[in-house]
Structures are given as C-alpha cells and as structure tokens.
C-alpha cells in the first residue's frame, strides 16, 4: 500500500468534499424548514465566487494585490458570505414566500426560474469569459506540508480548516442558540412553532441567509483552490451538493456534511484507485446502492405517515 | 398588511419582468439572426452566411474570437450585401443541432462557417445533408474522420488530426525525448481520437504511455494529478478548454510534479500559460507573418488565441463562393458548394494559399508547435 498516495487522495477528497458539504448544507437547511428544493442554490454559490473575484479585483487583482493576503482572503469570504446571504434572503422574499401556500410544484418551478435568472444575470454582468482567481500569483502553492512525495498546499489546508470551522459554527448555532432552537422547532412543525410565538418568517429568512452565506463561502473556496469562475459553474456543483444532501438525509445538517465528504472522498479514491473515466458512474452507483439500503439517507429520518 | 403584501408582490412582478426583458433583449442582440420566415429561393436578394460557434459557455473564448474574425471578413469582403447570421452552440452538439436546423430552414443562408468542435460537426452533418444541401466550413474542427467522404458538403480550413497526432508524437519522441507520457483525454469526439492517435504513434516509437480520461466539465484534477508517477516525463492534454489545462498545470505544480505538459490546439489560448509547456497549433501566430500588419490593425481588437484567423479565411472562402454564384443574379446552395470545391485564395492571412482537397481538407496544411514562456509568451519551436 502506497500510503503517501492514499493520504494525497484523502486530502484531495476532503478539499472537494468540504466544498460539497458547504453547498449541501444550504439545500438541507431550506428543505428542513420549508420542504423546498432550492434549485437556485448552485447559482448562489456561483454568485459568491464572483463576489470574491470582485474583491480580489478591487484590491489590485491577482497580479498586483495591494493588501495583506490573509486580510484579502478574509474580506473575500466576508463580502461573498454577506452578499450571498442577502441574495438568499431576496430569493426567499420574492420567489418563494408568495408561493408558500401554493402546491409544492409551484415553488420548485420558481426555484428553477430563479436559477436560470441568476445564470443569465451573471452572463450579462460578467460576460461568458472564464475569470480566474490565479491564487498561484499571490500565494506560493509550494508552501504547505511536504512529506516525501506527499504535497498539501497551504490553500488546501486553509480551505479544509475554514470549511470545518464553518460547519462547526453552524452546528453550535443550531444546537446552542435561541435562533437554532427556533429553527429546529420550525423544521419540526411550522404551525406549532408559530403558535408558540416563534416568528416563523424571521426563522426562514435567517435560514436562507445562513445557507446562502455558506454557499458563498464555498464559491470563494473553489475559486481559491480551482481558480476558474464562470456563469455556469453552479450547475454541476449544485447537483453534487444536492446529491450530498440527499445521501446524508435531506433535512439533516450532520447528514449534509457527511454526504458532502462522502461524495468528495468517493470521487478522489475512485479516480485514484479505479478509473477517472467512469468516476461519476462509480460514485453514483455507490450512492444508489446506499439509498436502496437507506432510502432516507445516512442520517435522515423516515417520514411517518398516518394511514 | 395585505395591501403591503400585494404591493410587494406587484413590485416583484415588475422587477422580474423588467429584468427578464433586459436579459432577453441582450440575448436577442447576441443572437441576431435573419427572419425565420424568409422567402424561399431568395438566396441572392439577401445572401446570408450562417455562423455557428460557442459564443457563450465554457469555450466562449473560441467563439468570440471566431465571431470577431467572421464579422471582420463580412465587413471587409462582403460588399455590404452579405449578412452573417450568428448562432451560439456553446460547444454543445445538441445546441449545434438546434441552431443548425434553424440555419438549414432559412433559404437566404447559402453557406455556414463553423461549428467549432468535431462533435458539433458530427451533430449538424445529417441536418445539412438533408434536402437542399448546405455547405459548411469549420475553422477549427480537426477530427480526421470528418473528411473521410461521409460528409460531402463539409470543408475545413485547418489541418486534421491525422497531421496533428503524428506531428505531436514525433516532436515528443524526437525533440523532447519523452520516455513515459501520461495522456488524459477529455471524453469528447475531438479529444479521444486525437489521444488515440498520439498514443498509437508513441507506442509504435517505443515510448511508455499511461492513458486516462476526464470529463470536460470537471474542474478539479488533483486526484488525477496524484496519479502522475515520478517516471512520467510528459503529460499530453488533447483538450478543448484551455482554462482546464491551466488548472491541471497549476495542480501539477502544487503537488510537485515535474513532468512537462504538451497541449493540443485546444489549449492554444491566453487562458493556458503554464511556463515551459508546449502546444500544437493548427495555424501559425498571424502576428509573426510578414505582410499581416495592416490586416491585424484592421481587425482592431485584441485576440489571444489562433482560433480567430482561420475563421476569417473560412468566411472569406464562403463569401467568394457566394459572390461567384450570385454573379448571374441567382444562386443555389449546390452552386456555392461547387464554387467552394474550386476555391483558390492566394496568400491568406494564415500565410499560404487556400485550396481544398476533393474531400474538403485544406491542401498542404501543417501543424505548428510552440513553447510557452513567462506569461504564456509563445515561441515557435516546430
């Protein structure tokens, strides 16, 4: 067994998986509370990546960064998270809230509409060209951990740590704060929560803000690690994030994290040990088998139906 | 409260409709085609050349430069009479079929320039062969089998992969002294046959080859990069998306991989600038050809790849064929195809003459090899 190769693939998988997990969290939080599949979530992630790129350009661009790089990345994350947080709130307010009592298919169509709207808006605003974070111009990718043939760049380490810190923060927020309690109560029974004096609208707004902010952070992280930013980047990432949420058990926050990491790691190890050609076929075959065994996902709870 | 809600919903509706109108009008501008209900047999009243290219999407850099040079040819040579109908394919065969059907149905369209990718050419070929056969000229599709005789109305102004594959393999073997080449195709109709050709040539020359493949939509190659062993001397990427090649190269650096990248013509763009890498190109850098200064000044825009100028030549060929066919006041697509077959354009901006073989290939075409320096600066090395 080549352990260096194994650890390298583990790091590759964790990087990708932590990004999927952050995206999956937005899907699962919204579904948990509204039973809505927010298909515009991938585009929110794309907008986050562009927001980060905007901050980078504002401070001199990749070739002429004018401030400390750590501060720059902090600003990119902050602006992207706040910007996408408000974008999520706006989407909820204008595209979903008016349809809250409509048949379930209506907000689903609205979500698809918002997704296309955001894609086209990005095309109009930023053009069809690829934008690149060109992280290698302002961060030495050779810096990081180097043990023999094992190389883990400082950017990957930062991305993994930030993603885990955000997930940990979210877990604390949901488990330990009044807002988290209100979110859990709303997810459990929206009407009962309202009767108990919880401002359900505020909880929903907070959920959209947090979920979208996490997607925005994921967008910046992807830009930092994989450089390329463009208006169609949300589709595949959104699909993977959604799959991660389903595999983990949609509606379950730890499930979304687990699902994201599982997909990222599966992709890395299948590419490394089996085949890059049929990577998605293998990954999704595993997931299908997993869902056949546990239809409600790894950490999801089966709905109890009154008969 | 309800009044406020209604106002909010009304504001949302107005905002959405206004935004959609802006987006739609922008797309309408980008997709300004001729009227779909053109009168039949109106070829010389309003002669039109269809343009198919990836104006948006992953390969927009290709389409935008191809469109720019096609428009330049129309402006410079079209005599104010020939129009261009732009169709965006997004490098997607399905989209190419849809827009191809639209062009085929328009009686004013006498020839098409494009599409860009071999997979798209294969998708539109059955459409353009139907009924009134529509001749089409690609400025970048290089798959060898496209000119095996099965698409008699297809032409291209660039050499095919039967030239690119041996040129690349020979350079890797003889000049770069490659010992072990790691080939990764991007699972497209362009990439796979080219990878197969280079692989076969290298193996025949005694070079060890490891073959991999990755979906064109993927942007994280780190797991694949981890598989590049220490004995790999070169990595061959026959890809269409140059930005993906840049990511691959940077991830190689990140993991301390020393192998040298050799990219196909798809990586010949400003998006790919890995220092020390090599690329093959189906056209020379026209900026280095004597006598092109006025031509380049006339274009007036910045261009970063070699995808644009061949499209100028393709459009030039189409214009000349249409003008010749329209000389008697009437033209059919069959006449235009016949004229294309007899094309002879001396000294094009690509440096040589343009003449087609009986199967639609360009006569005497060759591939060029460049080495990339700092910032992607290209030096001709083969």
Layout of strands and helices, then pairs:
The complex is a heterodimer of chains A (307) and B (382).
Chain A: H1 3-34, H2 41-58, H3 69-96, H4 105-126, E1 131-132, E2 144-147, E3 150-153, H5 154-176, H6 178-188, H7 190-195, H8 200-226, E4 228-229, H9 233-248, H10 253-274, H11 279-293
Helix pairs in contact in A: 1-5, 1-8, 1-9, 1-10, 2-3, 2-4, 2-8, 2-9, 3-8, 5-6, 5-8, 6-8, 9-10, 10-11
Chain B: H1 2-30, E1 48-53, H2 60-77, E2 83-88, H3 93-105, E3 109-113, H4 118-129, E4 136-138, E5 154-156, H5 161-175, E6 180-185, H6 191-204, E7 208-213, H7 222-225, E8 234-237, H8 242-254, E9 260-263, E10 278-281, H9 293-299, H10 308-325, H11 333-341, E11 368-372, E12 378-380
Parallel strand pairs in B: 1-2, 1-3, 3-4, 4-5, 6-7, 6-8, 8-9, 9-10
Antiparallel strand pairs in B: 10-11, 11-12
Helix pairs in contact in B: 2-10, 3-4, 5-6, 10-11
What is the H-and-E element order of chain A? HHHHEEEHHHHEHHH
Question: What is the number of helices of chain A?
Answer: 11
Broad structural category of chain A: mainly alpha
Largest protein-protein interface = A-B, 47 and 43 residues
| Strand arrangement, major sheet of chain B | 7-6-8-9-10-11-12
Shape of chain B: elongated
| Major beta sheet summary of chain B | 7 strands, mixed
Percent of residues in helices of chain A comes to: over 70%
| Content of β-strand of chain B | 5-15%
| C-alpha-based Rg of chain A, rounded | 19 Å
Structural class of chain B: alpha/beta
Number of strands of chain B: 12
> Which spans of chain B of ≥5 residues are poorly predicted at pLDDT below 50?
12-41
Taking the alpha carbons of the first and last residues of chain B, their distance comes to 75 Å
Mean pLDDT of chain B: 86
What is the share of helical residues of chain B?
Answer: 25-40%
Strand order of the largest sheet of chain A: 1-4
Oligomer designation: heterodimer
């Amino acid at each position: 067994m080549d352990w260096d190769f194994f650890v390298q693939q583990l790091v590759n998988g964790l990087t990708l998986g932590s990004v999927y997990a952050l995206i999956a969290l937005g899907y699962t939080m919204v579904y948990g509370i509204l039973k809505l599949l927010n298909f515009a979530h991938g585009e929110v992630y794309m907008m986050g990546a562009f927001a980060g790129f905007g901050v980078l350009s504002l401070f001199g661009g990749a070739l002429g960064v004018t401030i400390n790089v750590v501060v720059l990345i902090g600003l990119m994350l902050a602006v992207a998270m706040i910007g996408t947080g408000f974008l999520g709130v706006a989407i909820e307010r204008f595209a979903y809230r008016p349809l809250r009592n409509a048949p379930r298919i209506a907000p689903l169509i609205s979500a698809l509409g918002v997704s296309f709207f955001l894609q086209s808006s990005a095309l109009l605003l930023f053009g069809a060209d690829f934008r690149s974070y060109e992280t290698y111009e302002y961060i030495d990718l050779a810096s990081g951990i180097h043990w023999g043939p094992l190389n883990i760049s400082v950017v990957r380490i930062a991305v993994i740590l930030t993603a885990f810190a955000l997930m940990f923060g979210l877990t604390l927020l949901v488990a330990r704060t009044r807002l988290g309690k209100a979110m859990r109560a709303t997810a459990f029974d929206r009407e009962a929560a309202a009767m108990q004096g919880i401002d359900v609208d505020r909880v929903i707004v907070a959920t959209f803000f947090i979920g979208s902010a996490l997607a925005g952070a994921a967008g910046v992280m992807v830009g930092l690690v994989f450089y390329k930013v463009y208006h169609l980047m949300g589709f595949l990432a959104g699909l993977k994030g959604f799959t991660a949420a389903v595999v983990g058990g949609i509606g379950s926050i730890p499930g979304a994290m687990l699902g994201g990491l599982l997909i990222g790691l599966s992709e890395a190890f299948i590419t490394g040990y089996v085949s890059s050609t049929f990577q998605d076929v293998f990954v999704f075959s595993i997931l299908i088998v997993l869902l056949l065994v546990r239809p409600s996902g790894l950490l999801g709870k089966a709905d109890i139906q009154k008969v | 409260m309800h009044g406020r809600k209604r106002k909010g919903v009304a504001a949302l509706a107005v905002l959405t409709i206004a935004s959609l109108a802006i987006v739609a009008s922008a797309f309408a501008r980008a997709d300004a085609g001729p009227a779909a209900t053109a009168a039949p047999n109106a070829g010389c009243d309003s002669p039109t050349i269809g343009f198919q290219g990836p104006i948006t999407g992953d390969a927009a850099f290709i389409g935008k430069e191809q469109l720019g040079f096609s428009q330049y040819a129309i402006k410079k040579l079209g005599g104010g009479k020939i129009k261009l109908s732009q169709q965006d394919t997004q490098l997607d065969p399905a989209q190419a079929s849809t827009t191809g059907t639209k062009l085929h149905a328009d009686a004013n369209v006498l020839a098409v320039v494009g599409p860009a990718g071999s997979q798209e050419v294969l998708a539109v070929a059955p459409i353009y062969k139907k009924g009134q056969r529509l001749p089409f000229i690609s400025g970048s599709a290089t798959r060898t089998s496209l000119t095996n005789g099965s698409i008699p109305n297809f032409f291209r102004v660039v050499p095919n992969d039967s030239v690119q594959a041996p040129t690349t393999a020979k350079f890797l073997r003889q000049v770069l002294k490659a010992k072990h080449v790691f080939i990764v195709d991007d699972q497209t109709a362009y990439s796979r046959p080219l990878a197969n050709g280079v692989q076969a040539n290298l193996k025949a020359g005694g070079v060890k080859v490891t073959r991999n493949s990755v979906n064109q939509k993927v942007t994280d190659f780190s797991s694949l990069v981890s598989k590049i062993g220490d004995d790999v001397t070169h990595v061959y990427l026959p890809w269409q998306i140059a930005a993906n090649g840049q990511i691959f190269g940077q991830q190689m650096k990140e993991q301390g991989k020393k192998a040298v990248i050799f990219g196909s013509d798809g990586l010949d763009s400003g998006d790919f600038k890995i220092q020390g890498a090599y690329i093959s190109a189906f056209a020379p850098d026209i900026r280095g050809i004597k006598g092109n200064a006025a031509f380049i000044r006339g274009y007036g825009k910045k261009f970063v790849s070699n995808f644009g100028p061949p499209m100028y030549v393709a459009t030039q060929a189409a214009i000349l064929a249409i003008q010749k066919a329209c000389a008697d006041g009437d033209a059919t697509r069959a006449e235009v195809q016949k004229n294309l077959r007899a094309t002879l354009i001396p000294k094009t901006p690509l440096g040589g003459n343009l003449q087609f073989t009986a199967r639609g290939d360009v006569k005497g075409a060759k591939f060029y090899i460049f080495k990339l320096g700092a910032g992607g600066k290209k030096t001709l090395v083969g």
